[in-house]
Amino acid sequence: MGTKKILVVEDNEDTREILLYRLKSMGDYEIQIATNGKEALEIATKSKPDLVIMDLKMPVMDGWEATRALRQTNWAKDLPIIALTAQAMENDEEKALDAGCNDYIAKPIMDYTILRRKIEKLLR
Length: 124
Known about the structure:
By secondary structure, the chain is an alpha/beta fold. It has a single domain, classed as Rossmann fold (3-Layer(aba) Sandwich). The protein is built from five helices and five strands; from the N terminus they run βαβαβαβαβα. It has helices at residues 13-26, 37-47, 63-71, 90-99, 112-123, and strands at residues 4-9, 29-34, 51-55, 81-86, 103-107. A five-stranded parallel β-sheet has the order 2-1-3-4-5, sandwiched between helices. The longest helix is centred in the first third of the chain and has 14 residues, at 13-26. The radius of gyration is 13 Å and the shape is globular. The N and C termini lie close together (12 Å).
């Protein structure tokens, strides 16, 4: 089966570093990084990740647009995508699911066991 690939799409360097560190402690995942939606599409098309953690608000191309673009492709129409939403924006969660995300988690992420459970559930 091999190592699962997780693509982390996040424009904020601090958030990215923390996520990277946390994901590495969660399991034997191959982690890839993109800093905006356009980059995410390029990397995902080449590497075909098993799961994407997608920030929604980013420059160049946001997470909603990137998710919708991924859903248009044959290989990514069922790709598990977890949206990272800003905590205060309630309708972000709804919009994320409408755009095609499978799940979401608010940031700043306070409880990484929740993220781990979501990842494990979606990778099963």
